[in-house]
Amino acid sequence: MADKVKNAEEVKAAGKEEKNKAEAKPKKPKVKLSERVGKFFREYKSELKKIVWYSKEDTIRSTVLVLVAIIVFSVIISTLDFLFSSGLLAIGRLI
């Protein structure tokens, strides 16, 4: 029993030492809001320079391809919907 109490005290002491170590870490100095905002916009501007924009022809070609794909898939889904609903109605009439 005394061993358990002794071990518990050692665990508590070790926890306090770790807590003291965590508190002893040097804190980062606070940066003013205006400096943080300025840094944000500088980084934002540098990231915008890295963007590679597509040419007008590539953009138009991609847009047309997306529109065609939307039309094709909508026709396929509409056809399947019509067939399934007709099939369910036919099964309903048999019963």
Briefly say what this structure is.
With 95 residues, the chain is mainly alpha-helical.
Structure description:
- The chain is built from three helices and no strands.
- 0% of the residues are buried.
- The model has no long low-confidence stretch (mean pLDDT 84).
- It starts with a helix and ends with a helix.
- The longest helix is centred in the last third of the chain and has 39 residues.
- With 95 residues, the chain is an all-alpha fold.
Instruction: Work out the strand percent.
Output: under 5%
Helical residue percent?
over 70%
Low-confidence stretches: none
The biggest beta sheet is recorded as: none
| pLDDT averaged over residues | 84
Radius of gyration equals: 34 Å
SSE inventory with pairings:
Elements: H1 2-23, H2 33-49, H3 56-94
Which characteristics define this entry?
about 100 residues, single chain, mainly alpha, about 80% helix
